[in-house]
# Entry
Amino acid sequence: MPEYQSLYRKYRSQTFADLVGQDAASRALQGAIIGGRVSHAYLFSGSRGTGKTSAARLLAKALNCSGRARDSAEPCNKCQSCVEMTAGSALDLIEIDAASNRGIDEIRDLREKVNLAPALGPFKIYIIDEAHMLTEPAFNALLKTLEEPPAHVVFVLCTTDAQKIPLTVIGRCQQFVFRRHSEEQIVSRLTHIASTEKVSVDPEAMQLIARTAQGSMRDAVGLLDQLVPLASGPISLEGARSLLGIADPRLLDELLDHVLEGRAAEALDELNHIYAAGAELRQVVRGLMEGCRDRLVAALSRHDQAGARRLSAVLDALLHLDGEVRRHAEPRFLVEATLARLAVEV
# Structure
């Protein structure tokens, strides 16, 4: 039986034209490749699933592609270097996960090997993922190499938290910020994947996936991958909600009404009903946050100061709850206690 390849790996961008939603970074990188002005070090920052590692791999592929046209930055995806990079077996592309290789010993090992000549192409490309996880001594050890690397080496540091990267490192890199994808961009990409895979998905289910992914294309494609086994027929909105553990928005509206109007007992009953139906507690909290935010905007629009203050306080409590519910040993009790407290504080 052939090994199953996840949709995200199968549909990872293999050309700059495939890189969705990052037009500025894509244009700048392509211009540098065509003009021969590639920097020795880049810093790609942005939230998860926005294409940082994919862009780094595309840069590596284009730099070592032997079949690339001189007036184009697009890799041919046919030469030996491109094929090896796509398969993850290229010796000239070294990917380091800084979350698990974060110490000074790993960086010293990198410094010793960085002077070795490339195996196949003209460049060796080092991609350091989650670079903000490196320790301070590791960053200090990396500084000299970043400042004066061998001519055949390009570093790409990827991070979801650029604030933790030392300024001395940022100053030695060209930085590109990768933006969250819009819901429209995610729906468009998911529609293309579903069509290629011959899977029928209701538009409402697509919108639900895009909203749940919160700007992460990787998360969105992963959620679609979870739904594909349901595809004996069209994937419906209800089927998507059930599998993803997302409550019906109408029930969440009723729950928020109970909280805002001080009906603590009814709020807890409604929460238990939603929980028993299989909804994930974190998704419940997220849904309440979205509903509360929409009501806050409406209250501000009609200059309802008292209502806006109440909604702002509830939203602030829900934001705190969203962070706590992931770490708490008894998340259900935490959510119940928070909603009961908000209800009695009318």
The chain has 16 helices and five strands. The longest helix spans residues 281-301. The mean pLDDT is 90.
